[in-house]
Specification:
This protein is an alpha+beta fold. Helices cover 36% and strands 23% of the residues. The strands form two sheets. It has a seven-stranded mixed β-sheet with strand order 1-2-3-4-5-14-6. It has a seven-stranded mixed β-sheet with strand order 8-9-10-11-12-7-13, sandwiched between helices. Helix 3 runs parallel beside helix 4 and helix 6 packs across helix 9.
């Protein structure tokens, strides 16, 4: 398409009516493009911009100043969404966002829409001055379990690997009970489990990012579902899935790793409950999330740290879906490099004893 005839129609500080129906619900939609995430990030110092393109599609762009440096950084988290359109159209939206951000004084802009890998998209962004960058979110690629039109819980379970079926039943026999927790009563304890999992899998998860507050907000917005696994009254695992893009998508999951020999099958049981919920809701699929990590953006191989997690998710019948990488465009290189240096200094200072 001719990007010269495409652009931005309006930019609003507050989300226009019906925003989530345009940014979260369509194919490729994501809660990180929604109103709840914008409000959450605004409370942490980011400034949301709700952008409407000339074709009627939308994108949420977050900006943050790095004083005393001039300008600001800009990020479209999991956006702009595809919404069932061509990758050429998505690339045109990315380029329009970059034009607006540059003119508004941005130092750098990053985007990471949830798109299947596509060389045309890559080429269009490269021609526009974008370069691939490390993922902002924990994973890039996804494992997706698709349902057949006439599927039942029994037919889906029949396609699950024998070992996984045994683990699901083993978890039930061990007395582990999975229940939905819409009020989020178990979120604090679940946050501790996710923090421990983050250390094992080498992705960022910290109290400063306000994850528990975010989980409460997205549950209250009814854009997420939360299941907990309990054994003898203690929380031994949990799973949060977002309602977005016309399906459920696992966002966070973790269990008590130290109890796996005693209570095998906890995560298998949790994931099976989420799969059944997606099927019962009439969704065509459930996204079981990614398993790739920083420095290893590929399907894990035997011996790699996340190979076991890949085996676990694939055992439910999920297929590996290669996704497009995150991209950035740097508008003010000197300021950008100064900002990176300042962040490195802050990280060193935070690591010092007593800091």
């Amino acid at each position: 398409m001719n990007t010269a005839t495409f652009g931005i129609a309006r930019v609003d500080p507050a989300p226009p009516d019906g925003w989530d129906a345009l940014a979260v619900d369509p194919p490729g939609g994501h809660v990180l493009q929604g109103t709840a995430w914008s409000a959450h990030r605004a409370a942490l110092g980011w400034k949301p911009h709700h952008i409407t393109f000339t074709d009627g599609r939308v994108a949420s762009l977050l900006t943050h100043r790095q004083e005393p440096l001039p300008g600001f950084v800009a990020y479209a988290p999991r956006g702009p969404i595809k919404a069932g359109d061509s990758v050429e159209r998505v690339a045109a939206r990315v380029i329009a966002l970059a034009d607006w951000a540059r003119d508004a004084g941005a130092t750098v802009m990053a985007v990471d829409p949830e798109l299947d890998a596509d060389p045309t998209y890559e080429a269009l962004l490269a021609d526009a001055g974008f370069t691939e960058t490390e993922e902002i979110q924990p994973s890039r690629h996804r494992l997706v379990l698709r349902f057949e039109p006439d599927d039942t819980a029994d037919s889906v379970l029949a396609r699950v690997s024998r070992t996984t079926r045994q683990r699901i039943r083993g978890g039930e026999k061990a007395g582990t009970v999975v229940e939905e927790d819409p009020a989020g009563l178990g979120l604090e304890a679940f946050g501790e489990l996710v923090g421990a999992a983050a250390e094992r899998r080498h992705f960022t998860f910290s109290a400063e990012q306000g994850f528990v507050r975010w989980w409460r907000a997205v549950l209250a917005d009814e854009r997420a579902r939360f299941w907990v696994a309990r054994h003898d009254g203690r929380l031994v695992g949990g799973l949060i899935a977002y309602r977005q893009g016309g399906h459920l998508a696992t966002a966070f999951s973790a269990d008590r790793a130290d109890l796996r020999p005693e209570l095998p099958g906890t995560m298998h049981l949790l994931r099976w409950h989420a799969i059944r919920a997606a099927l019962e809701a009439g969704y065509p699929s459930i996204d079981l999330g990614g398993v790739d990590v920083r420095g290893a953006r590929h399907k894990p191989e035997k011996g790699e740290p996340t190979y076991g997690l890949w085996e676990h998710k694939a055992s439910f019948g999920a297929e590996w879906v290669r996704s497009a990488p995150a991209h950035e465009q740097i508008f003010r290189p000197l300021v950008y490099r100064a900002g990176l240096a300042a962040r490195r200094v802050r990280r060193v200072l935070r690591r010092r004893p007593g800091s």
